[in-house]
Amino acid sequence: MYLSDHEIAQAVESAAITLSDFDLARLQPTSYDILLGHKFLTVDTHRTGFIDPVRKILPEYREIIVSDDEEFILHPGVSILGTSLDYFGSDEYLIQLSGKSSLARIGLVVHNTAGVINPGHYLHITFELTNLNSVPIILRPRMAIAQLLFSKISSPPQRAYRDTGRYHDKNWAGYIEERRGE
Fold it and tell me: For the chain, what is the domain count?
């Protein structure tokens, strides 16, 4: 069962949900809009001849930081990684990341597979941004990029996500190194 707007606001107020810089204006009937951050990772195509996930041959990345008054141009057919400006998490609720329909209609995909945030996981989420359109899409820091849905779980997990030893909001270098070691 998903939380409604007033339930999300109550859970934030009681600290059952962490949402940095909570803004009532971003609260939707059953979701909360989150904003695009300033950091992007792009594949250095001149250093990456191919990718072979089975043999752990992964791309070389380049970090790009875009200030509030700048823009990032996402070209057609290109996939990059981005971060959320918002920091969020909960010990009590399962959080699902969902794209915004207004952005999906222009061909912007914000996540391919990483849409579930387990209870106990607090993070600035990494977006898997892809432009499926035939023209570039301009991305700006602080634009509404996705929405979070919160659902009750039937019982507390036996083991919290933070106890699993899995990825926890590491910096980009940690993210890249962890992927190379999988």
Answer: 1
CATH code, domain carrying 73: 2.70.40.10
Q: Would residue 160 count as lying in a domain? A: no
Domain extent at residue 140: 5-45+59-154
Catalytic machinery residues: 128
Q: What three-state secondary structure class fits 104?
A: helix
| Residues written for the chain | 182
pTM: 0.86
For 89-105, what is each residue's pLDDT tens digit? Answer: 999 999 999 999 999 99
The CA distance from 27 to 170, in Å, is 27
Q: Using DSSP, state whether 128 is helix, strand or coil.
A: strand
Q: Which amino acid is at 179?
A: R
